[in-house]
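Reopening: structure tokens for the uridine-5'-diphosphate complex, inputs below.
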Amino acid sequence: MSDAALHTPPEVIVPFDRSRRTTSSRSTRILNGRFDRLSANQVVEELIRTIHAGQRATLCTVNVAILMMMRSNARLQRFVDSAKWSVADGQPLIWASRLGPRPLPERVTGIDLIDQLCGRAVRENIGVYFLGASDEIARAAADALRTRHPGLDVRGSADGYFGPDEAPARARAVAASGADILFVAMGVPRQEYFIEEQWAHLGARVVIGVGGSFDVIAGLRKRAPAFIQRAGFEWAYRVAQEPRRLFKRYLITNSQFIGLMSWTAVNAALHSRRSFWRSIPRV
Ligand code: UDP
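Re-run output (same inputs, fresh job):
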């Protein structure tokens, strides 16, 4: 990721407006986000290919709350825009994509990616590093994954509670470990800022921000059952576990998302009606 790419101002794009949409055929735009039309398996293949090709890349998993946060955080928006891939981490985004001409194939969650990538890492002899949460949680997550994927080459783990002065040393430790995959679980946008600032020093070829995933893998927090995830209520399950901290956040971001999507759908309908009348030749 070049500095220039990170500091390019984001384009303002009207969602699903064909005339202004600049997404490639491989991606779909939902409001202010660009999402790659890749299944979880395809994402894993792309990441492994990147490593074998000796290239470096970041991937962002974006859920509704993050998509809304990006609207008021230009730095986060630029980061996600300049990441090589961004994928939809949540069923509501998949539903929203179906309103447009290029639906996304499926949800790709950070926690599933960690699991699948670790599986592949064993077979491909790729080292992984876990940075974020407390020391114990990072280590417990690494241990849990090593148990699930025997032979996993864990090059290191470290907590995500450090100040800006310590960040360069943390990045150098990752580089010194020789890990090719780095998972950063420090919450959004903390982890994105860290990746952006330390990109040149991290060494790892593939770097992924994975939010609170280590807490779940280590067993500190529970993940919603699959049927709740498919019903689009994973957020409610999270709120139930931490109501004081998360209720307001999800109430605001979900309402904002529903409002914006409704406005978009109405606009798109009006636009197609106008195009229909304009297409009738005048005599
Ligand atoms: N975290 C961290 N460093 C910090 C703050 C948080 O590593 O300075 C970890 C935290 O332990 C948790 C993860 O980041 O494992 C996500 O944190 P949080 O739930 O606060 O993130 P949010 O859900 O607010 O994005």
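The pocket of uridine-5'-diphosphate is lined by residues 132-133, 160-161, 185-188, 190, 211-212, 214-215 (CB under 6 Å). Confidence is low (pLDDT under 50) at residues 1-22. Marking as resolved unless the reporter disagrees.
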